[in-house]
What does this fold into?
Amino acid sequence: MKKTSRPADIYLRFLQLAETLRGLPSLPSLDPLEEKILELVARTRQTEERLSVRDMMAKSELGSPAMLHSRLKSMREKGWIMLTDTEDTRRKQIELTQAALLHFDKLSKCLLQATEQIKAT
It folds into this structure.
């Protein structure tokens, strides 16, 4: 009897495939808050908006400015984000590094692979 696939099966397969990425040599892992910050930076990039350090500090739902500042510093040291100059040299723009973009490329491939595998069953 063939097992019927549900949309949730695709997501669960994706999680399984994405977990294998953690075992591959790449960027150092992030804590849960750093992952939220990374997702915010990535979504902002996707919509072609700008996100400065000051903008990030205003996101009170992510924590205190001091905690956010330390997480941004940690993420820079781990190679996930970089700060770039803007026309106002006092404001720094938060951007993904090339390595972070490659990580998202790998996650996208996992999602496509999960979709293909579930469709094939």
The chain has five helices and two strands. The CA atoms of residues 65 and 93 lie 16 Å apart. The mean pLDDT is 87.
